[in-house]
Amino acid sequence: xxxxxxxxxxxxxxxxxxxxxxxxxxxxxxxxxxxxxxxxxxxxxxxxxxxxxxxxxxxxxxxxxxxxxxxxxxxxxxxxxxxxxxxxxxxxxxxxxxxxxxxxxxxxxxxxxxxxxxxxxxxxxxxxxxxxxxxxxxxxxxxxxxxxxxxxxxxxxxxxxxxxxxxxxxxxxxxxxxxxxxxxxxxxxxxxxxxxxxxxxxxxxxxxxxxxxxxxxxxxx
Length: 221
Fold this sequence. Notes:
Number of strands: 7
Strand content: 15-25%
Helix content: 25-40%
Distance between the termini: 91 Å
């Protein structure tokens, strides 16, 4: 008769095993969902980045992974920031066909304007877009490609076309029309694009390197 109390103990053991099994299964399910969600988020972010590049590359064919073929750039004077920025190389059959840079116009009306600029090997602009800005809604919308074609005026220009001294708005004696009522923003963007092209002219060979770097290289002034 003394052995009967073992039955409740066995029941408790079985319940504990069941609970442990359920907990493990639940944890595994959460891990699977988390991994799948993480991968979807990464894929979405990658697609968003590539779409940004396509916007300034203007349909230029390339067959490499732009997100893997990168350079780290530092030049506060020409690139507008003391922080390092990333440049992305577009290649077709191994040859560099464009470089995409992310300079900053530090003197916007409401703060820094981050740009995305694609430059062809001959130094001409393929496209320019505003990656982010804090310009006054309505007044500063002209640098948003979805609301204005003002940024298209840079396409086909280079560091020598016009001359360096002409990379200014007309109000300052340059070749570029300022957007009505937004001279400060116009001046900031025109200046930043011109300085970026000057940076490209100085570092062209390094930017258009023939070999895919084993690790991101750094270009400094």
